[in-house]
Automatic annotation (TrEMBL):
<dbReference type="GO" id="GO:0030246">
    <property type="term" value="F:carbohydrate binding"/>
</dbReference>
<dbReference type="InterPro" id="IPR050350">
    <property type="entry name" value="Compl-Cell_Adhes-Reg"/>
</dbReference>
<comment type="similarity">
    <text>Belongs to the selectin/LECAM family.</text>
</comment>
<feature type="domain" description="Sushi">
    <location>
        <begin position="184"/>
        <end position="244"/>
    </location>
</feature>
<keyword id="KW-0479">Metal-binding</keyword>
<dbReference type="Pfam" id="PF00059">
    <property type="entry name" value="Lectin_C"/>
</dbReference>
<feature type="domain" description="C-type lectin">
    <location>
        <begin position="24"/>
        <end position="145"/>
    </location>
</feature>
<dbReference type="GO" id="GO:0007155">
    <property type="term" value="P:cell adhesion"/>
</dbReference>
<dbReference type="InterPro" id="IPR033991">
    <property type="entry name" value="Selectin_CTLD"/>
</dbReference>
<keyword id="KW-0130">Cell adhesion</keyword>
<keyword id="KW-0732">Signal</keyword>
<feature type="domain" description="Sushi">
    <location>
        <begin position="245"/>
        <end position="306"/>
    </location>
</feature>
<dbReference type="InterPro" id="IPR016187">
    <property type="entry name" value="CTDL_fold"/>
</dbReference>
<feature type="disulfide bond">
    <location>
        <begin position="215"/>
        <end position="242"/>
    </location>
</feature>
<comment type="subunit">
    <text>Interacts with SNX17. Interacts with SELPLG/PSGL1 and PODXL2 and mediates neutrophil adhesion and leukocyte rolling. This interaction requires the sialyl-Lewis X epitope of SELPLG and PODXL2, and specific tyrosine sulfation on SELPLG. Interacts (via C-type lectin domain) with alpha-IIb/beta3 integrin ITGA2B:ITGB3 and alpha-V/beta-3 integrin ITGAV:ITGB3. Interacts with alpha5/beta1 integrin ITGA5:ITGB1 and alpha4/beta1 integrin ITGA4:ITGB.</text>
</comment>
<dbReference type="InterPro" id="IPR016186">
    <property type="entry name" value="C-type_lectin-like/link_sf"/>
</dbReference>
<dbReference type="InterPro" id="IPR001881">
    <property type="entry name" value="EGF-like_Ca-bd_dom"/>
</dbReference>
């Protein structure tokens, strides 16, 4: 035990106990063996000298408290109270969980509709360690705890959970290890032909890394544009693909030829076709056309057209058969140039 002076100047004898004594990093329990308090007074007492009224997380803690504390006829206040109709641990701000719940038979019954605070039956002949809701103005022993959890514990990547004589870290999603220092890793992304830009808050291709993808001009993207590394060590989606934009297929001009080259696939972005015509025909349109990033061909459609004929005049001064005037004979001759 130890003697301290409370905020009212009274000499108060405190008793403290824990599995590991006063070792650093141990959650210790404390109570006063002199004087009883209302629930509010008990909480003020605990907050003055320790951390708060005790918060209980599981049945193991209840068994430990029941064995370690002395019997007191009015029993002990614990740090749970009905807030907004919900039983809440005031020291941690957590609501009551099923694994910690330990109500006595028929409790809580909220008799007379004013039982918002809770006592624990320490060393009671029947239902030892069980809880009972009580009016908050009744006077009982204050059962306090001193926290071992500190802000720097668990690397700020997990929740520090008090245990008897120690603590443990419950890591947030994406982290693991005793102090939550280890980060979940995802597979390294190595896209082929798809530009990628990544950010890595916790290390290359680890939890919460994000990678953005975009295609070059003339290509369209298929799939998610952003991937994120999840706590499951999986990426949120598959790497997207970039597919060359397609143009309509070009047909060979009638009475002509077409010679096409394809960089990214038949009649896709970058494809080029050169045209020529057979002898006696001329090309109308561009000699070559290219598939653009818009999915259209440069220029208008190309075709071959027959050459126009020369009008040749052949004059004859006489003919064998008589005629009243010289006969002019005209002939059409088409000559390739």
């Amino acid at each position: 035990g130890e003697h301290v002076e409370d905020r009212h100047g009274a000499d108060v004898k405190l008793w403290s106990f824990s599995v590991w004594g006063w070792a650093v990093g141990a959650w210790t329990y404390h109570y006063s063996d002199q004087g009883d308090y209302t629930w509010e007074q008990a909480r003020n007492f605990c907050q003055t000298f320790f951390t708060d009224l005790v918060a209980i997380q599981n049945q193991q803690e209840i068994e430990y408290l029941n064995k370690s504390l002395p019997f007191h006829g009015r029993y002990y206040w614990i740090g749970i109270r009905k807030l907004g109709g919900i039983w809440t641990w005031v020291g941690t701000g957590k609501t009551l969980s099923k694994e910690a719940e330990n109500w006595a038979q028929g409790e809580p019954n909220n008799r007379r509709s004013n039982q918002d605070c809770v006592e624990i039956y320490i060393q009671r002949p029947q239902q030892a360690g069980k809880w009972n809701d009580e009016p908050c103005n009744r006077k009982k022993k204050a059962l306090c705890y001193r926290a071992s959890c500190q802000p720097f514990l668990c690397s700020q990547r997990g929740e520090c959970v008090e245990t008897i004589g120690s603590y443990r870290c419950e890591c947030y999603p994406g982290f693991h290890g005793p102090e939550c220092t280890d980060v979940v890793q995802c597979a390294k992304l190595e896209p082929k032909g798809v530009p990628m830009n990544c950010s890595h808050p916790y290390g290359d291709f680890s939890y919460n890394s994000t990678c953005e993808f975009g295609c070059h001009e003339g290509f369209e993207q298929r799939g998610a544009g952003v991937l994120r590394c999840l706590p499951s060590q999986e990426w949120s989606a598959n790497i997207p693909t970039c597919t060359a934009i397609k143009c309509s297929a070009l047909t060979t001009p009638k009475m002509g030829q077409a010679a096409c080259s394809h960089v990214h696939g038949d009649f896709t972005f970058g494809s080029r076709c050169a045209f020529s015509c057979q002898k006696g025909f001329v090309l109308k349109g561009l000699e070559s056309r290219e598939c653009t990033a818009l999915g259209t061909w440069t220029g208008d459609s190309t075709h071959c057209k027959g050459k126009s004929c020369d009008l040749t005049r052949i004059c004859c001064s006489r003919v064998l058969s008589p005629a009243p005037w010289p006969m002019a004979v005209y002939a059409l001759a088409c000559q390739p140039t």
